[in-house]
């Protein structure tokens, strides 16, 4: 199967290697490939002959207007090029709970991406994932002032990126769902607790203070917004957070 992946970051690079190992004809294209999905430059040539297009692109700016423009324009060009090329399946990776957290500009941008896919002429699957284990250190850094980190007890249901890749590969090589597929990790846990367990595993000396007002990248977070949707039949990944921490490479000093 000829599969073109737009976005060669954490998930895209792993997915390309995974699918290649299964014998598929796959290429992952990052920004260095000279393709600009926001203008459409090079997109038609990239999708020529593809059976499946996987959109793992991300906005280089998190400013609200920039994110919205990126996902709106990028999706329009990818879907239009895919329709013209006869692509049979368009897959995007989205976020569990994004429609419950629309006070965050990034979530509104991802909603625009989903809407663009739904409005297009290519059969599609929207894979909504919970947050990745690999992003917990970044969440911690964004919440730190001096030696103190203020973290919300609001809940996440995080997942290992390797598990995302394994499930995403099944979706990519399967039939279009024509809707949303949810995937999530095996444990629902507060962000404050996720950070404490990370610091215990890595020996980080920062102090973690539980603060319900801390929020999540500018959005207020409760215990339900970013966990698997009840009744949605989410696929639950096998890797636990503690198992991932035990095998995570220790950063060099």
Question: What labels would you give this structure?
Answer:
single chain, 253 residues, alpha/beta, Rossmann fold, 7-stranded parallel beta sheet, 8 helices, NAD(P)-bd_dom
Can you offer a commentary on this structure?
This protein has a seven-stranded parallel β-sheet, with helices on both faces. The protein starts with a strand and ends in a 6-residue tail after the last helix. The protein is α/β, with parallel strands linked by helices and 253 residues long. The chain has one domain (2-247): 3-Layer(aba) Sandwich (Rossmann fold). α4 links the parallel β4 (89-95) and β5 (124-129). It has eight helices and twelve strands. Residues 35-170 form the NAD(P)-binding domain. This is LysR family transcriptional regulator.
How does the SSE layout of this entry go?
Blueprint: E1 2-6, H1 10-21, E2 25-29, H2 43-47, E3 52-55, H3 64-85, E4 89-95, H4 105-119, E5 124-129, H5 136-142, E6 144-145, E7 148-151, E8 155-156, H6 161-172, E9 180-184, E10 189-190, H7 191-202, E11 207-210, E12 235-236, H8 241-247
Parallel strand pairs: 1-2, 1-3, 3-4, 4-5, 5-9, 7-11, 9-12
Antiparallel strand pairs: 6-7, 8-10
């Amino acid at each position: 199967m000829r599969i073109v992946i737009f976005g060669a970051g954490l998930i895209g690079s792993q997915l390309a290697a995974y699918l290649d190992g299964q014998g598929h004809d796959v290429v992952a294209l990052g920004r260095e490939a000279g393709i600009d999905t926001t203008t459409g430059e090079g997109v038609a040539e990239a999708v020529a002959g593809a059976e499946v297009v996987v959109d793992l692109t991300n906005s280089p700016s998190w400013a609200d207007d920039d994110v919205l423009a990126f996902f709106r324009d990028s999706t329009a060009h990818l879907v239009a090029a895919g329709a013209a090329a006869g692509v049979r399946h368009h897959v995007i990776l989205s976020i569990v709970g994004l429609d419950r957290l629309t006070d965050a500009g990034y979530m509104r941008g991802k909603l625009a991406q989903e809407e663009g896919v739904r409005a297009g002429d290519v059969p599609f699957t929207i894979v909504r994932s919970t947050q990745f284990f690999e992003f917990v250190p970044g969440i911690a850094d964004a919440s730190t002032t001096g030696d103190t980190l203020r973290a919300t007890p609001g809940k996440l249901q995080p997942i290992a990126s390797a598990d995302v890749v394994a499930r995403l590969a099944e979706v990519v090589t399967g039939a279009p769902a024509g809707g949303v597929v949810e995937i999530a990790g095996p444990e629902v846990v507060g962000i404050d607790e996720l950070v404490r367990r990370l610091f215990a595993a890595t020996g980080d000396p920062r102090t973690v203070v539980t603060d319900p007002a801390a929020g999540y990248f500018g959005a207020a977070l409760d215990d339900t917004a970013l966990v698997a949707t009840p009744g949605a039949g989410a696929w639950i990944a096998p890797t636990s957070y503690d198992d991932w921490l035990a095998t995570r490479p220790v950063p060099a000093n």
